[in-house]
Every structure is written in C-alpha cells, then in structure tokens.
Amino acid sequence: MLPPVPHPPRAPALSLRSPRPLPAPSRARASGCSSPLSARRRASPASQLPAKMAENGDGLGTVPEHERILQEIESTDTACVGPTLRSVYDDQPNAHKKFMEKLDACIRNHDKEIEKMCNFHHQGFVDAITELLKVRTDAEKLKVQVTDTNRRFQDAGKEVIVQTEDIIRCRVQQRNITTVVEKLQLCLPVLEMYSKLKEQMSAKRYYSALKTMEQLENVYFPRVSQYRFCQLMIENLPKLREDIKEISMSDLKDFLESIRKHSDKIGETAMKQAQQQKTFNVVLQKQNNVNFVKNVYVNDRIPEERNEVELKREFEEEDENEEEVLTVQDLVDFSPVYRCLHIYSVLGDEETFENYYRKQRKKQARLVLQPQSNMHETVDGYRRYFTQIVGFFVVEDHILHVTQGLVTRAYTDELWNMALSKIIAVLRAHSSYCTDPDLVLELKNLIVIFADTLQGYGFPVNRLFDLLFEIRDQYNETLLKKWAGVFRDIFEEDNYSPIPIVNEEEYKVVISKFPFQDPDLEKQSFPKKFPMSQSVPHIYIQVKEFIYASLKFSESLHRSSTEIDDMLRKSTNLLLTRTLSSCLLNLIRKPHIGLTELVQIIINTTHLEQACKYLEDFITNITNISQETVHTARLYGLSTFKDARHAAEGEIYTKLNQKIDEFVQLADYDWTMSEPDGRASGYLMDLINFLRSIFQVFTHLPGKVAQTACMSACQHLSTSLMQMLLDSELKQISMGAVQQFNLDVIQCELFASSEPVPGFQGDTLQLAFIDLRQLLDLFMVWDWSTYLADYGQPASKYLRVNPNTALILLEKMKDTSKKNNIFAQFRKNDRDKQKLIETVVKQLRSLVNGMSQHT
C-alpha cells in the first residue's frame, strides 16, 4: 500500500512588480508599429479602469490618451510597442510621469486580480499535491514490479529474439529466393528462345531463326533489358543476321550454279513432256478419226482392228514414257531460293535480293544463249542448245508462279524477248551452214518441240514459227540439191530405151510406179515395151518422195491443210522448174548424148508432163483437202517439160546438123573434072542412109517434131551444099564438076520426095533444095537469057537464084574455061562462049550493084 502523500507548502502570493521605466528614445526604437494599428487589433484591458483614472485627478484631455496607450501596449505585439511609447514622450512635457503613474496603478490592479485568482484555486492545488504524493509510493512499487517483469521478460525473450532473428533471416532469404525465382522465370524464356535460336542456326533453319529473333526483340528482350546478358544478346543479333544473309546468299549462289548445270536436264525433261503431250493428242485424234470412219469398214474389220491395235500400242508406249519422266521439282531443289527470299523479306532487304537474283540470271541467260561454234554440225548440238534454254525459262516460270515479286511477268517477258531475238539470230546463222536436209528436218522438229514447250509455259513463240518458214525455204534448197544428185544418178543409170516387159507381173510393177494408161499397149501380147525409159518411173517416184520430204517439214507448223497444200505445190514447182529442168537441160547438152537418147528424152518428158495431174491429185490426197478447193499455186510441170522438150528438139536439130556437117566434110569433089562419074558421091549416099535410119527412130516422136527435124536437116544439107559451091577457097569449077554435083542434089531430092517422115504435104520437103535446083538448072541449061529477061518477075523460072550467087559461080567457071582452053581462042565457038560469059558477068554485076544501091 502506498504511503500518504504529504501536503505541499503553500505557495506565496503572486505579485506584479512595476517594470523599470524605459527611456523615451529606447521605447521609441523598440516600437515598429503605429499606435492606431495596435489599437485596431485588440482592445486593451485598461479600458476597464476609467473611474480610477478620474480619481487620480488626471485631466480630461490626458486620461483618454493614456488609457489608449495602455490599451495599445496590452493589446499590441511587443515588437510594435515602440511607436506607442514614443507617443508618450511626444505629446506633453510631463506626460511621462503621468503615464508612469497610470501604468503603476494598472499593474497594482492586475496584481490584485491575480492574487484573488490564486487564492481561489489554492485549495485544489493542495489537494492535487496530496493525491500525487499518495500515488508516488504505488508508482515506485509498480516500477519495481515492472522492472522485475521486464527483466524476466527480457530473459525469456532472448531465445525468442534469436529465433525471431532466424525467422527474419529466413524470411529475407525466402523473399530473395522468391525474387530470384520470379526473375529466373522472366529470364528463362529469353534464354530458352536464344538457345532455340542457336539450335536453329546450327540446323540451318535460318528463316525460323529470323522469326525467333523477331520474337526475342519484340517480346522477350523488353522484359529483361536491364540485365547484362540481354545486352550481350541484343548486340549479337545483328551479327547473326549478317551471318544468315551471307549463308543464304552462299546457298543461292550454289543453287544458281546447280541450275546452270542442270538446265539441259530440266529442258530435256520439259521438252519430253511436251512431246509426249503432243503425241498423245495426235494419237487421240487418230482414234477419233478411226471412230469416225468405222462405218466405212463395216464389211472389212481388218483395217479397224489394225488401227485399234496400233493405237493401243501407242497408248501403252505413252504410259511407259510418262512413268519415266521426272518433274522439274524432282530435278531441282528450289528451297534455297525460297529460303533466301524469305530471309531477305524478313530482313527488309528484299529489293537487294531481287536485283541480285535477276542480275545473275541475266548473266546465265547470256551464257545459255551463246552457242557452240560447231553446233550446226550435229543435231545433238542443237538439242543441247535448246534444252539449256528451255531449262532456263522453265526455272524462271516456276519461280514466277511460286514466289511473289522475285520474278514478275514483265521481267520474264523482257528476258524472253531478248532471248528470242538472240535465238533467232543464232538459228538463222547456224542453219545456213546446214547442207543435209535430214539435219535441217531434225532441226525443224527440235524448234517445233522447243516452241511448243515454251508456249505451254506462256511464252509467245510466233516469231519462231516465222523463222521456221525461213528455214523451210532453206530446207527446200537442201532438198533440191539432194534431189538434183538423185536425178543425175537416175539419168546416168538410164539406158534411154523403152522399158521391156515379158509378163504381167513386170507390167504391174511398172504401172504401180508410174500412172501409165494406154489401151493399145494393154491389148498387145507379151513381150512388149513401154514407150518411156526406166528413168521415167524413177523420177516420178522421186518427185513423190520429195513431196513426202517437204510434207514432213510442213507438219506441226500450226498451219491449215490449204496452206500446207500450197506450200507443197510451191516446193514441187521449184523441184520441177529448177532442179529437174536444170538436170534435163544438162543431160540434153551432154556431148555423149546422141540423137537416139534425145529422142527418148523427148518421149520421157512427154509422159512426165502427162503425169503432172496425178502429182496434183497426190498432193491433194496427202493434205486431205477437197478436190474443189481453189489452189493459189498450180504445178508448173507442163511448162517445165515443154521447155525440156524444146531444148531436146533444138539439141536434136543441132546434133543432126552436126552429123550432116561431119558427112559433108567427107566430100571429096574433083572440081576440075571434065565429065561426071555417072553416080552420086559416096559420102552423100551414106548421109542419106543415116538420115533414113534416124528418121525411122523419129516415128515415136510427135509428128511436128519429126517433120521439123526432117525439114531442118534437109535445109541444113541444102545450105551446106550451097556453101560448098560458094566457098571462097574454091577458085575454079568445071562443068563436069557441076554435073557431078547435080547428081548428088538429085539424090537429095529423091530422098525428100520419098517422105522419110510422114505428114508433109506435096513436095514441101523438096522445097528445101529449090535454091540449089534452080541454080544448077541455070548452069546446066545455060539459060542466061531467060534468067536475065525474067529477073525480078514473080513467075520467073529462076526466081530463087540470087544474082550474086550466080556471079560467084560463073566467075569460077570462067576462070576454069580460061585455064583449060588456052588455045580455044583460035576456035570461033569457044571465043563466042567466052564473050557470052563475059557479057553475062557484066550483066550480073550490074544486077548486084543495083541490088546494093537499092539496099
């Protein structure tokens, strides 16, 4: 129990002591505020003492002033008392003392009030102190208890403190672990993605690696950007991108090199597929045609069955070929291009990749389009050239359709137009060296397959087909050269005699080769002969072979049957008008070709001319056009063989005349003989016998040809005999020589009158010797008076005797008379004859001079 608290001693009474009055200047400096302002802030307690101030005997004027000052001092802050106190000294001289008195009185009043208040509260204060003393004892006991409790609590809390510290430490560790786990959970995806990036780089999955980089940059790195390892990763990504670009570009270069090496294989595969598709369409068309004409063979199943078997076999071959053909994707791995394109697209550098790819492919295109110098020598050279080009554009077409933007249609069209111009120039140059038609035909087939293949990929190839028309002309030229050799061989091997046949089989063999129709020959019994020689059916067969060869080139040119028909006719016209005509003309002009051979050549050309209509029908049949179709080109065989016949006829006339000249050169006249031998000269009889045998052969010729040849021979013989008389080297001719010459002319006239060639009317053939006859009659009869008298008259007996001719011959006889009759001048008759000759000569000269003047 706490002890009682003792009563505290009474406190002394509080008193207010008057403050020491401040000097006036000090009070004035101490004040920083004006009195009116202090008075306005609060009211002074001194206002409660007006009565006391009045009691002190203050004047009415100063008391309110002092009260106001006291109110301001009580109500104003200490810092603002200075101006108020200054007013005490400024108002009146004795105002200071009065104010001090008032201040002391005020202080006393306040002390009294304070004392009253303390007395009023003193008992309560004493009671409080008493109670406080009582509580102090209990407080000390409580303090001891609290101290003991605190000690015991401290002793008991030491282990708790240790455990608490452990708990705190564990909690910190747990918090740290949680933080680490949270950070690791934040960083692990980044590390896993970066590890995945490394694995993708190692596995060469560069496009996926770039996508992983994008995820790292956009999603994962912003979460852990404050860590150093993240900064290292961020700094490493550009290098990885550059590595990917270099690796992908290296793969692209390897791809470009690979497709350059495999272009020929790719092109070969594509061309084989196009050829198979074309063959399939042709076979299908054939099958449709077979189905269309089945009704034609209702009673005969053999053609239908044979066609079905052939079509089945062709379809089976097509199936086998299709199994063997690989696709372009099987030959080339395009993944480097796709990968590189995707990589550059992700990297935002797609334009650089496109420019590089197109630039490299253009370089490869120029290399592919550059042919080998000996390409024209073999078809393999052309095939390799075409397959490389096809392989190049097949790859470009594939890239065009499987990528977006890497290769555009405008780019491929530009590249193809450039390549097409180069291809046409190369083919035009190299094909000009080809002299073998088989090689040109194979080249044409390659160009067609080449064009069809690229056309299937959407490339325009019309210019290639235009080029084929140029090559077709060259092909025709090579065919013409080849067939010129064939025709020459046929002509060399021909014996130029009618074809003998001994039985029906031989007859059918010839008829199967050549369309010959002659009812008279068919009625004759075996053995018999065809009028033409062996070369005629051979030439006819070779012309058909030429048409077949020309048709082979015209196939697959995407032309109508009418156009092909016209092309075949034009080619055949060239064969007939140029090649065959040239061979015939060369044959006709060969020196060893005699008259018999020429006659047979004329017969042959006649039958070949008749066979031209069969050739036209043959062309119409193989081109499958209607017989009523109007052809823009007709066969010119008629004019060709007519020209050849005319040349042969002319050659017959020339050779016949040459033969006559050979016989005439054998003439050996004694121009000074006095009497004739009484018979014709031997050379002339030989000549006439030769002409009879030759004209006997001419019976197989057309009538006009034989008649013209006979007339030409007689005229040439007459001219030759006339030139013999008028030869300038012959100076003298006796009358006996003239008589002997007359005997020879008589034989010629007898030959002409014997009608060696039928068809002449009257004495037409004898007119060839009329000039000689009238000239010889003039000299034999010596009828100069009649000649001179009737000269120039239409009915003159010697109308065909030219005065100049008569003068030349007469002068030669005049000289002979002078030489042989030296002493004839002593005979009167001879002198008269000599004078007559001189007179006739003078008159003839006058006629000749008159003719020259008239001319």
TrEMBL record:
Residues in Exocyst complex component EXOC6/Sec15 N-terminal domain copies: 102-271
Gene3D superfamilies, per the entry: Dsl1p vesicle tethering complex, Tip20p subunit, domain D, Exocyst complex subunit Sec15 C-terminal domain, N-terminal subdomain
A Pfam family per the record: EXOC6_Sec15_N
Stretches with biased composition (Low complexity): 12-51
All copies of domain Exocyst complex subunit EXOC6/Sec15 C-terminal, residue ranges: 464-812
Highest taxon in the source lineage: Eukaryota
Entries under InterPro entries matching the protein: EXOC6/Sec15, EXOC6/Sec15_C, EXOC6/Sec15_C_dom1, EXOC6_Sec15_N, EXOC6PINT-1/Sec15/Tip20_C_dom2
Region of interest: Disordered: 1-62
Cellular compartments per GO CC: exocyst; plasma membrane
Biological processes per GO annotation: Golgi to plasma membrane transport; intracellular protein transport; vesicle tethering involved in exocytosis
Positions with biased composition (Pro residues): 1-11
Entry function: Component of the exocyst complex involved in the docking of exocytic vesicles with fusion sites on the plasma membrane.
The protein's name in its UniProt record: Exocyst complex component
Organism encoding this protein: Ailuropoda melanoleuca
Gene responsible for this protein: EXOC6
